[in-house]
Amino acid sequence: MRSISIFGVTGSIGEQTVDLVRRAGGAEAYRVVALTGGRNIARLAELARELRAEVAVCADPSGLAELRDRLAGSGVAAAAGAEAIAEAADRPADWVMSAIVGAAGLVPGFRALRHGKSLALANKESLVTAGPLLMAEAEARGARILPVDSEHSAIFQALAGEDIATVERIILTASGGALRDWPLEALARATVQEALAHPNWAMGQRITIDSASMFNKALEVIETREFFGVEPERVEVIIHPESLIHSMVGFRDGAIMAHMGAPDMRHSIGYALNWPVRADLPVARLDLAQISTLTFRAPDLTRYPALRLARAVMERRGLAGAAFNAAKEVALDHFLAGGIGFMDMAGVVEASLDALEPDLGRTNAAPALDDILQMDHLARTKADEIARRRAGSR
Ligand code: NAD
Ligand code: MG
Predict the structure, then answer these.
(1) Counting ligands in written order, which one lies closest to the CA of residue 198?
(2) Residue nearest to atom 25 of ligand 1 (CA)
(3) CA contacts within 13 A on the Cβ side of 266
(4) Nearest ligand, CA of residue 265?
(5) Quick check: 245 and 296 in contact, CB under 8 A?
(6) Ligand 1 pocket, 13 CB below 6 A?
(7) What does R_g of the chain's alpha carbons equal in angstroms?
(8) What is the C-alpha separation between 272 and 269, in angstroms, rounded?
(9) What is the largest CA-CA distance in the chain?
(10) Measured in angstroms, how far is the CA atom of residue 16 from the centroid of ligand 1?
(11) How many Å lie between the centroid of ligand 1 and the Cα of residue 105?
(12) Strands 144-147 and 235-239
C-alpha cells in the first residue's frame, strides 16, 4: 500500500487532494502517515479520523489540547507547532503533498525530500525562496519533485519525452485575476472583497489576491526558472482570460505544445498523485465548439509591477527570492488588514528589496537554509516597517 502525507490538508489544495484520495478508496487505498493544518483544528481532526492518519499536527501550539480532545480514542497521535510539522515530514512516506501556504511550507518540504521519494509541490514559495537548495537536495537524495501549480504541471506534461535543450520559450498563461478589466486609476482603491472575486479559479484567499496583483504570476515565473532550469529571458507571461490553456512550451522548431483543460486543480493534483500513470479524474471535459474562442493579450507592466520585480529577482538570485517572497507576504497581510492599498503592495516589496540590497549577498550563489530563513525574517521586519510607514501616511 502506498503511504502518503498531506501538509496543509485543511486548505484549498489540501481538501482537493483529500477529495482524490477519498475517491480512490481513502484509508483502504493509502496508508496515511501525517496530516497537518493551521488553525482549523476541527477540520484537521475530522480528516485525520476519516483517513486514519498516524499523526495530525496543527501549526498553532495553543490548539494542541483541542486537537488531542477531538482525536481521543481514534489512535491518531496529536502534535502542534512549526517544529512538530517539520518532524512530521521526517516520517517517511512514498508521496508527500506540500500545500502549506507561504514560506512556512519550505522546511517541511525540504525535510520530506530526504526520504528520496516523491514531493508533490503546490507550495511555490519554497522554490522562490530556496530553488537551488531544493533542487540540489532532490537530486542528492534521488527524490522527485512533481509540480502541482497548474502552469508548472502543464509545462511538465508538455515536456514529457522532450529534450529541455530544445526549448526556446516557456509561456505562462495568466487569467489576469479579479481586477483584470478595471481602469488602471481605479486599482489603487480596490478593496479586499473586490480583489477576491476571481473569474475562473476557486483558491485560498492569499493566492487569489496574489492573482489580482500578479504577484502570483511573478512567483510562478521564478518557480519556472528554478524548477525547469531555463534562462529567465525564455520565460514569458501572457494574459489568457479563459484559463483553458494552462501554459505552453515553445520548441526550437517553432512548435508550441499547449496544455488544455478545465480550470480545476484536481487535474494537476491528480497528475502528481498518479504519475507516471494517467488516471481517471473527476474534472469537467471541455466542449470546444461551445467555447469557440480563446483570447490572449500581453500584460501591461504598469498595471502589474510585480512582473517587473520578478525579473530583477531572477537577475539577482541568491537571497533575492527569499526577500521578495517574504516582503510580498507581509505586504499582503497589510493589504488584508486594510492598512495599505492594492497598488501599495508592489511599492512595499520594491522598497524592501532596495533597502535589503546590501544584505542580499553574492549574485547567483546558492545560499544555505539558515541564510534563507534569516533573510526571510529580516525581509519580514523590513517590509513590516515600510508598510506601517505607508499606512501611517495614508
Ligand atoms: P489555503 O490558504 O487554502 O491553505 C493553506 C494551508 O496551509 C491550510 O491547511 C492552512 O491551515 C495551512 N497553513 C497556513 N499557514 C500555516 C503555517 N504558518 N504553518 C503551517 N500550516 C499553515 O492555501 P491554498 O490555496 O491551498 O494554497 C496552498 C499552496 O498551494 C500555496 O503555496 C499556493 O500558492 C499553492 N497553490 C494553490 C492553488 C489553489 O488553487 N489553491 C493553485 C496553485 C498553487
Ligand atoms: Mg498557478
Answers:
(1) 1
(2) 204
(3) 18
(4) 1
(5) no
(6) yes
(7) 20
(8) 5
(9) 62
(10) 12
(11) 9
(12) unpaired
Can you read off the three cell numbers belonging to residue 18? 483529500
Q: What is the pLDDT of residues 27-68, one digit of tens each?
A: 999 999 999 999 999 999 999 999 999 999 999 999 999 999
126 CB near ligand 1 (under 6 Å): no
Q: Which pTM value belongs to this model? A: 0.97
Which SS3 state, helix, strand or coil, does residue 98 take? Answer: strand
Residue 63: CB within 6 Å of ligand 1?
no
- The helix (H) or strand (E) run that includes residue 3 is strand 2-7
Query: Which residue from 9, 10, 13, 196 has its CB within 8 A of the most atoms of ligand 1, so it is best to mutate?
Result: 13
Verify whether ligand 1 is closer than 6 Å to residue 207 (CB atom): yes
Closest to 155 in 3D by CA, of 254, 268, 247, 272: 247
**What residues contact 155, with CB distance under 8 A and at least 6 apart?**
147, 170, 224, 228, 247, 248, 249, 259
CA–CA gap between residue 113 and residue 275 (Å, rounded): 17
Protein residue closest via CA to atom 41 of ligand 1: 203
Which of 387, 371, 369, 378 has the alpha carbon at shortest distance from 323?
378
Q: Which ligand is nearest to the CA of 126?
A: 1
Ligand 1 nearest atom to the CA of residue 205, by list position: 2
Atom of ligand 1 nearest to the CA of 210: 34
Per-residue pLDDT tens digits for 343-379: 999 999 999 999 999 999 766 668 999 999 999 999 9
**pLDDT in 10s for each residue of the chain, 394 residues:** 999 999 999 999 999 999 999 999 999 999 999 999 999 999 999 999 999 999 999 999 999 999 999 999 999 999 999 999 999 999 999 999 999 999 999 999 999 999 999 999 999 999 999 999 999 999 999 999 999 999 999 999 999 999 999 999 999 999 999 999 999 999 999 999 999 998 888 899 999 999 999 999 999 999 999 999 999 999 999 999 999 999 999 999 999 999 999 999 999 999 999 999 999 999 999 999 999 999 999 999 999 999 999 999 999 999 999 999 999 999 999 999 999 999 999 999 999 999 999 999 766 668 999 999 999 999 999 999 999 999 988 7
* Nearest residue to 323 (alpha-carbon basis) of 354, 344, 347: 354
Q: Among 5, 10, 12, say which to mutate for ligand 1: greatest number of ligand atoms within 8 Å of CB.
A: 12
For the Cβ of 265 lying below 6 angstroms from any atom of ligand 1, the answer is yes
